[in-house]
Design a protein that fits this description.
The complex is a heterodimer of chains A (222) and B (310). Chain A is an alpha/beta fold. Chain A has helices at 41-48, 74-79, 96-107, 111-124, 140-152, 170-185, 197-201, and strands at residues 2-10, 16-25, 30-34, 56-61, 64-65, 81-84, 158-162, 189-193, 206-211, 214-219. The complex binds adenosine-5'-triphosphate and magnesium ion.
Chain lengths: 222, 310
């Protein structure tokens, strides 16, 4: 599903955020992306979602070479990806419902279909009662869960999560992880960047560990 | 069936974007109204001038006697032939009205007006010819048809001399034409101004909604999807401005109605100032809509592609 082939990323005026990273994730697999702050986790996820372009190397998603993807094709790729952002990236002047509905509206779904799917997604993250609320009226953890609902509402084949449990209490974190496992069980490929080493240690998934932009460990991943 | 549903869905989505763009304008009424007012005034100016000069052209077309032809008949024609000629001419489709002035009537009128009564009495023969004043039918009043008519009348054996007094009408029309051309220049400049106003408004709108554009891109929106609300905003501004311009022009014409009637009354004319008709209003609306869409398109093309999520 995802293949990194000697990918390097250097931000303009900075040092290398990623250095010659190579790994492979199978379709339908689930893995954690770990590493200290600044190791390059967010950068790696952004490369997959074409939010950044690699400086060197080849990057494949679903058999397509993303390193040579023209601008026109970017929306099509992004629709295959449900992405959860470290800083939520919600529309502050839209309700929770409208935020979650956005990917469906973009994809041009019908009105009734949108309502049904949005409520299902909000139900999964435990926010069904908050559809009319605006993001500023929510706690950090609730906003994070709105972001998760938005990422899964379109049932994308790939889920990328950047610190999805960063603002959640341990119990809610477990629930959210369980939710990701459920998606994985129905065939969604899941890649989660996380600091939460305790939680990760208890789960039987591959681990991709970055240290200063280099891949240092790939537990079980093939 | 499937296609129809797809089309329905497509139209529905456009309608939704159009309405939400309108709703967004409604939520900032003061700013929206100001922009619309500027556009409206810029459109009203050339539209109003066009309406006025249109009226002037109307005026020149229908000015009684403006394209009348005078046929001076040969002398010593028997009464019968003159009567026959009148009857023939009355059948011509080009001719609306005839007025026959016999030689005696002409002399009488001349005597009356000139005060040369006694001198004329000294003549043993009436020196004046009989005249038929010909009023062409409305469709034949323009310079070209009138000249053709003149040519035909000139070839009649009974006619000594045929005259068409068109010159001042032509001059008048030429002046109106020059005025219209100048208005076209002014209109192009103001159209450009409208384009810039809408373009700038949309540019600000894009800047204000930068975050929203980025996030929408993040979740996979195409350029077309992101463009759409801004194009509709431009369209609404254009249509709103055109609506306002229509109201302004109609009010101005209404204001001029009474003085114009008075003026016409002085010239024994039943001329009435024409209000802008549905065709003109439609043209104005279409102009506004096109300018709005174009202005938005230019702004969107320049500023939207620069916004990429990171
Ligand atoms: N837009 C940018 N411009 C320049 N440098 C950047 C940019 N984004 C990230 N970096 C740098 O790249 C390196 C990797 O950043 P990245 O955000 O990928 O780290 P991270 O592993 O996600 O960290 P954290 O756990 O704190 O979120 C850092 O040194 C950071 O300073
Ligand atoms: Mg990060």
């Amino acid at each position: 599903m995802i293949r990194f082939d000697h990918i390097s990323k250097r931000y303009p005026g900075g040092r290398d955020a990623l250095q010659s990273v190579s790994f492979h994730m199978h379709r339908g697999s689930m893995a954690f992306l770990t590493g200290r702050s600044g190791a390059g986790k967010s950068t790696l996820l952004k490369l997959i979602a074409l939010l950044e372009r690699p400086t060197r190397g080849q990057l494949f998603l679903d058999g397509e070479n993303l390193s040579r993807m023209p601008r026109r094709q970017v929306p099509r790729i992004r629709r295959k990806i449900g992405m959860i952002f470290q800083n939520y990236r919600l529309l502050c002047d839209r309700t929770v419902f409208d935020n979650v509905a956005l990917p469906l509206v973009i994809a041009g779904h019908r009105h009734q279909e949108i309502g049904r799917r949005v409520r299902a997604a909000l139900d999964k993250v435990g926010l069904l009662g908050k559809e009319r609320a605006f993001p500023v009226m929510l706690s950090g953890g609730e906003q994070q869960r709105v972001g998760i609902a938005r990422a899964v509402v379109n049932r994308p084949p790939l889920l990328l999560a950047d610190e999805p449990t960063g603002n959640l209490d341990p119990e809610l974190s477990r629930d959210i992880m369980h939710l990701f496992e459920q998606f994985n069980q129905v065939g969604v490929t899941v890649l989660i960047a996380s600091h939460d080493l305790d939680l990760i240690a208890r789960l039987p998934y591959d681990q991709i560990r970055l240290e200063q932009g280099r891949l240092v460990q790939e537990r079980g991943a093939s | 069936m499937n296609f129809a549903r797809g089309l329905n869905n497509y139209v529905g989505r456009h309608l939704q974007v159009a309405l939400s763009s309108l709703g967004r304008l409604y939520r900032t009424p003061l700013a929206s109204l100001m922009t619309t007012a500027v556009i409206g005034i810029a459109l009203a100016l050339p539209a109003g001038l066009y309406a006025l000069t249109g009226n002037l052209q109307q005026l020149s077309n229908r000015w009684d006697g403006s394209t009348s032809l005078s046929l001076f008949l040969k002398k010593s024609l028997p009464e019968g032939r003159i009567e026959a000629l009148r009857q023939t001419l009355e059948q011509w489709p080009e001719i609306a009205r005839l007025q026959f002035i016999s030689a005696d009537q002409a002399l009488e009128e001349f005597r009356h007006l000139s005060g040369f009564g006694e001198a004329l009495d000294a003549l043993d023969e009436n020196p004046l010819p009989a005249v038929i004043a010909v009023q062409p039918a409305p469709a034949y009043r323009d310079a070209e048809s009138a000249s053709a008519l003149l040519e035909r009348l000139r070839r009649l054996p009974e006619v000594e001399l045929a005259q068409l007094d068109l010159q001042w009408v032509q001059r008048f029309n030429a002046i109106v034409d020059i005025v219209r051309r100048s208005i076209a220049v002014v209109a192009s400049l103001l159209g450009l101004a409208v384009l810039l106003i809408i373009g700038n408004t949309i540019r600000l709108e894009i800047q204000n909604r930068r975050e929203e554009i980025e996030i929408t891109r993040l979740v996979g929106a195409t350029d077309a999807f992101i463009r759409r609300p801004f194009l509709y905003t431009g369209l609404w501004y254009g249509i709103g401005g055109a609506l306002l311009a229509t109201v302004l022009v109609e009010i101005a014409l209404l204001q001029l109605q009474a003085p114009a009637r008075e003026l016409a009354g002085l010239y024994q004319s039943d001329f009435r100032l024409q209000m802008a008709g549905p065709g003109e209003i439609l043209t104005l609306m279409a102009t506004g809509a096109i300018l709005g869409l174009l202005g938005a398109w230019l702004a969107v093309g320049r500023h939207l592609s620069a916004i990429e999520p990171a």
